Automatic annotation (TrEMBL):
Record GO terms (molecular function): branched-chain amino acid transmembrane transporter activity
Record's signal peptide: none
A Pfam family assignment: BPD_transp_2
Membrane topology designation: Multi-pass membrane protein
Protein localization: Cell membrane
PANTHER family: ABC TRANSPORTER ATP-BINDING PROTEIN, HIGH-AFFINITY BRANCHED-CHAIN AMINO ACID TRANSPORT SYSTEM PERMEASE
UniProt superkingdom: Bacteria
Primary localization: membrane
Keywords from the named record: Cell membrane, Membrane, Transmembrane, Transmembrane helix
One Gene Ontology cellular component: plasma membrane
Transmembrane portions of the chain: 26-44, 104-123, 180-205, 225-245, 266-287, 299-317
Organism encoding this protein: Neorhizobium alkalisoli
Protein name as annotated: Amino acid/amide ABC transporter membrane protein 2 (HAAT family)
Amino acid sequence: MMSVREKRQSATAEAVRSVMKRHGRWSRLEIGFWLIAVAAWFLLPGEHLILTEIVIFAILALSIDLVLGYAGIVTLGQAAMYGVGAYASGLLSIHVTGEPLTGLLVAALAGALIAFPTSFLLLRGADLTRLMVTLGVAAVLHEIANQASWLTGGADGLQGIAIDPLFGTFEFDIYGHTGYAYSLVVLFILLLLARFVTASPFGYSLKAIRDNPLRASAVGIPVKARLVAVYTLSGAYAGIAGALFTQTQQFISLDVLSFQKSADGLMVLVIGGTGYLYGGLVGALAYELIQDALSSVTPQYWQFWLGALLIAFVITGRDRPRQLINSISARISRPRQPGRLDAVTVADKGKPT
């Protein structure tokens, strides 16, 4: 017979499995989101270029959300892995092969190789130190790319990139038809992997580290190993985003390693919210649409109005979009049955008028 302690442990384990299983389910709102993204390929053929840019931006924001929203690592150096992935994919296409899937794999490895040694520097400081370290790494790589013009093209950019047709059939055209479908499939696969990671015991341990690293260490969670692992994974994601940029644009400039690239990723998360994966996706869509709309209405002052909107988002709370999305998802997933009264309705009816 099982002892009382074993029964409690079994009940606790079952409760944990139930929670992870519930959080790993697909909601109707998520399914609708992806159906709309696929329908955009058919309904908006003239907007595939900007849609491709949004998808790539969403992958970059997703890589930041993995370390910021789940592990609590504040970073301004995600452009380092993004830029290295972009250059790795471009150089591979010029000197070895232009096969796009191989370029994605090489870019992911390049981003992870930059993130892995950098992660050990992040373990030595708090938020301000992490900001400066990540920013410094990106600045160093930016200057290296600028000086090594024989390899990267320097300020003139890396030219002569030629990407082979995807699966030998689908060519990357100037209208972005193949690029959008290709980037969207990559984003979906990366989101599936991120969902699996964040809904696993590994993901819950990251949340515990984010909330209280000392307590997480006290209960036996290997804090340093977890942070190194998630930062390396986020570097691979950023490298893939850079490779997609290279393959769809077939040109690379030093901007891929600029501070602005990391800052834009953080602004996307300010808009979309952190810690629920879709913040980067929703934020990237909103950011690009707002930027496009403001630049067309006020070409000279669009950055002013964009800054004002970001301040408004911060004042109202960066978790508001996530709360709104969770509320809508809950209502869609659990529609009220006809003829059934909930506890609030019954209580209200019982109040004297």
